[in-house]
């Protein structure tokens, strides 16, 4: 029994060893002899595999040694080649230095000439890109580009013919700057439609179409475009007259700052008109304008009325009988109706008659005075309101755009200007109307005083 158990244990242990040492054993040994045979077979196979590995390692070592030898041979070859190339480079560098010295000696004083020629060609190319003459003669900058490319290459020098052609190009540009010419070309309107139109070029300053509209030259697209906003005033009329004229001298608004809508023309275009400035005043500006219109109507009405009354009073002064159609006649009527009244009572009656005429003569004068005082206050109100809005915008968006900030302040000050424009004429009109009224009142007081004195003298003489 013990032998059987021992045998089974040895068989199990042998099977485990066979599995660990020899993975090729696919089945369990049934006896110790079979187990021993399996173990020997595994050892033999492992030995064969180990010898195969050693052979591969030796072959790889020999191969690596061969590759290392080849790399060392290649390194030596490249070092020799590098030394040869360095020598060749030094040799060529000496040749280049010698050639540069020879070129400098042959150029002599022409070096400065070619430098100026290159600079002039660059300036001319820049002028061609923005010149209105290029609209009439497209593609003329091609020669200048080739000449600049040739001179900057430092391989070839410009010929006498090319230098003369360069001089001729400068003379053409200078000559064309003093001409007024008419030709036909494509023009793009504000809607984006391109049509062929007759245009008139005034030197290198401005170009207009037959309708007198100023055009803008776009160098990027080499096209003419109608300015979306034209200058106000007589400029459009002058341009149209020049564009349709055949001879003679004509007025024209020239922008000397450039053909692409230069700074001066842009300033004229961007400057708001009187109507636009008036609209900048907003609601307060409209109120001030309405108040000014009312003041003007009242002043004209009172001037006409007082002029008619003054003419009737002057006629009454020349007449021998009192007439009820004028204040002086009504005052004289009091004396005629009371010839026997004592002087004190007559004086009071005449003063009463004069006082009755004062309201009709001084009608609406106080209203004119109030308008003259209120108009500047309304302007100040609009300015303060506009400044508040401007500073609120600065608080939100910042003060990075001075132009926008200045535009807001300018719009706010429009109401102050409107207020002063209403107040100053109103004060003058009030002065004129008040002077007419006081003149008539003075005549009434003078005549009433004279009547009292005449009546007193008559009583004393009687």
From TrEMBL:
Keywords: Cell membrane, Coiled coil, Membrane, Protein transport, Signal, Transmembrane, Transmembrane helix, Transport. GO terms for biological process: protein import. Residues 325-445 form the MotA/TolQ/ExbB proton channel domain. InterPro entries: ExbB/TolQ_transport, MotA/TolQ/ExbB-rel, MotA_ExbB_proton_chnl. It is a multi-pass membrane protein. Belongs to the exbB/tolQ family. PANTHER family: MOTA_TOLQ_EXBB PROTON CHANNEL DOMAIN-CONTAINING PROTEIN, PROTEIN TOLQ. This is Biopolymer transport protein ExbB. The lineage of its organism: Bacteria, Pseudomonadati, Pseudomonadota, Gammaproteobacteria, Litorivivens.
């Amino acid at each position: 029994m013990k032998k059987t158990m021992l045998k089974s244990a040895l068989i199990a242990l042998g099977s485990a060893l066979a599995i660990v040492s020899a993975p090729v054993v696919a089945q369990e040994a049934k006896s110790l002899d079979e187990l021993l045979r399996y173990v020997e077979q595994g050892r033999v196979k492992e030995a064969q595999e180990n010898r195969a590995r050693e052979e591969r390692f030796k072959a790889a070592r020999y191969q690596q040694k061969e590759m290392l030898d080849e790399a060392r041979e290649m390194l030596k070859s490249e070092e020799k080649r590098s030394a040869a190339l360095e020598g060749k480079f030094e040799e060529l560098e000496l040749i280049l230095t010698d050639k540069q010295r020879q070129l400098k000696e042959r150029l002599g004083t022409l070096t400065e000439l070619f430098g100026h020629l290159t600079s002039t060609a660059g300036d001319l190319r820049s002028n061609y890109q923005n010149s209105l003459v290029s609209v009439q003669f497209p593609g003329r900058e091609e020669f200048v580009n080739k000449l600049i490319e040739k001179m900057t290459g430092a391989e070839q020098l410009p010929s006498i013919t090319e230098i003369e052609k360069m001089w001729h190009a400068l003379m053409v540009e200078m000559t064309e700057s003093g001409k007024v010419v008419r030709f036909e070309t494509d023009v793009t309107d504000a809607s984006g439609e391109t049509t062929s139109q007759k245009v008139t070029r005034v030197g290198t300053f401005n170009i207009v179409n037959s309708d007198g509209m100023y055009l803008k030259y776009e160098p990027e697209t080499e096209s003419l475009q109608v300015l979306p906003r034209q200058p106000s005033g007589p400029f459009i009329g002058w341009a149209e007259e020049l564009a349709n004229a055949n001879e003679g001298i004509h007025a024209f608004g020239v922008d000397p700052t450039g053909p692409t809508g230069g700074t001066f023309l842009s300033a004229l275009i961007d400057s708001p008109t009187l109507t636009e400035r008036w609209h900048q005043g907003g609601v307060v500006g409209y109120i001030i304008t309405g108040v000014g219109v009312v003041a003007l109507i009242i002043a004209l009405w009172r001037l006409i009325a007082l002029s008619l009354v003054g003419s009737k009073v002057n006629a009454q002064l020349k007449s021998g009988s009192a007439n009820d159609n004028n204040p002086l006649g009504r005052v004289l009527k009091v004396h005629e109706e009371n010839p026997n009244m004592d002087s004190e009572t007559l004086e009071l009656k005449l003063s009463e008659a004069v006082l009755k005429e004062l309201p009709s003569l001084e009608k609406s004068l106080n209203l004119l005075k109030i308008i003259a005082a209120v108009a500047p206050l309304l302007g100040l109100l609009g300015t303060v309101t506009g400044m508040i809005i401007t500073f609120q915008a600065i608080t939100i968006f910042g003060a990075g755009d001075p132009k926008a900030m200045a535009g807001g302040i300018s719009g706010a000050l429009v109401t102050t200007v409107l207020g002063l424009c209403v107040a100053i004429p109103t004060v003058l009109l009030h002065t004129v109307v008040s002077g007419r009224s006081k003149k008539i009142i003075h005549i009434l007081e003078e005549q009433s005083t004279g009547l009292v004195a005449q009546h007193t003298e008559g009583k004393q003489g009687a």
